[in-house]
Predict the structure.
Amino acid sequence: MTLYPAIDLQDGRAVRLRQGDFAQTTVFSEDPVDQARRFAADGATSLHVVDLDGARAGEPVHAALVASIAAAFPGTVHLGGGLRSRAAIETALATGVDRVVVGTAVIDDRDLLAWAVDRLGDRLVVALDARQGKVATHGWTKVTDRDAIDVATGLLSMGVRHLAYTDINRDGTLGGPNLAAMRRLADAAPPLRLIASGGVSSLDDLRRVRDLGVATLDGVIVGRALYEGRFTVTEALDVLGAGSRA
């Protein structure tokens, strides 16, 4: 199972939000490129990068910084945040990242989703973010009445292969991952390759994710717990098996 250390970009810095709230921001690094190098030095083979300012603006803001991160990190880099048009997705690809993580746009726009599936294939990851089982969009600022499971099965029918699921109520809280939600999602759309996100606070949390027994659960995104030193990248990789399906 792959570990994805998270680098969330705001005002050129690496930060973490609490439950997606831009008013609850903690700065963890003034130099995201150096942070990427440190994750690599610790053994990370993949990164999950989010342009938070882009998520709010609805278009990429930190493309140049992302390109520097992608150039500095020797492994696989995923990028999300504000990728709501063909032009924005092409901008993301131009930064040199390996996979593009798209949420709001393809959930709201089936034509864009069809284009993205055709354009990106295996390089497309759809971010499915939910509060209490309902899909949230526009940088988590809007919660819809759409059930996350229904949306996931619809994405699968359109050809999506990779899904990153975030329980917003747990994100940045260190309250533990929502394992039940991951299980329901895997059972409802078994061909989807899943990445779990939100709430990981300890190595025991990672063990619970690992031991969930979901064959399609390929990885887990971890942010605050790494930045706060609750465990190291090396320790996390030992728990997860240091595997990578990037």
